[in-house]
Amino acid sequence: MHIRDVLRGKIPEDLLRLVPSSFDIIGSRERAVAIVELDDALLPYKELVADAIFEVHKNVRAVYRKASERKGEYRVRELELIKGENITEVIHMEHGYKIKLDVTKVYFSPREATERQRIASQVKPGETVMVMFAGVGPFAIAIAKKQPAVGRIIAIEINPDAYRYMVENIKINKVEHLVYPVLGDVKIEAPRFFNQCDRVVMPLPKGAYLFLDEAVNCLKETGGWIHFYHWSREEDLFTEAFRLVSEAARKRGFTAELRGARKVSPYAPRIYKVAVDVLLTK
User: What angle do CA 73, 260, 118 make, to 5 degrees?
Assistant: First the structure.
């Protein structure tokens, strides 16, 4: 059942089309929160929307409304509690591992669980992997769980709250021997790992290109993989993303080859978050 079906007859018929077709549910089968984006016209009916979510998703304990865009250095947004328990900290379950987080303090997207598995499945035994903008650790933990023979995963995060949760999540999932968490700015911390990595993951679409030089320099002398995320327009999804990686690669004498490209998620009308998998070789 869709929440629109629950709301039919409770809100004006012409507003049903504005009811979101999807929203984030973060947590477990027993305890989760829902985060919904509402059109201004639906605000007078926001509690009814929350009731509909509770009816359809029995595990949801609180419904929050997105009250701002993601902003600031830590990429977090303001949330308004519409209805339910005043809880913000949950343990999210995906693909057999647990991610603990506070939805008001960190960036986390449950919609990218499939993307995390896609990247993790490409990692080979013995590799050294860097995850930039690691957040609470979902990419690093996904890789460690999918490829337990990985050599080392370096996970850099600047938000102290996200870093604290990442350290806890590494322990919860028993991957302390594989994941090395680093608190700090990628620009400052990445140079410690220059020439050491087989693969660099850059899951920050807004501004990740500013860190491409660091990503390329982290690869070994023989090259490696860059998984780069970017915002792109629908009419040409991958050209600019690949060009940006290629330009950074040439500075170090690498040749860039596009080995994979994927539309990850919508961001705005006709604008998408995209991922390119680029192999750099000498």
Answer: 70
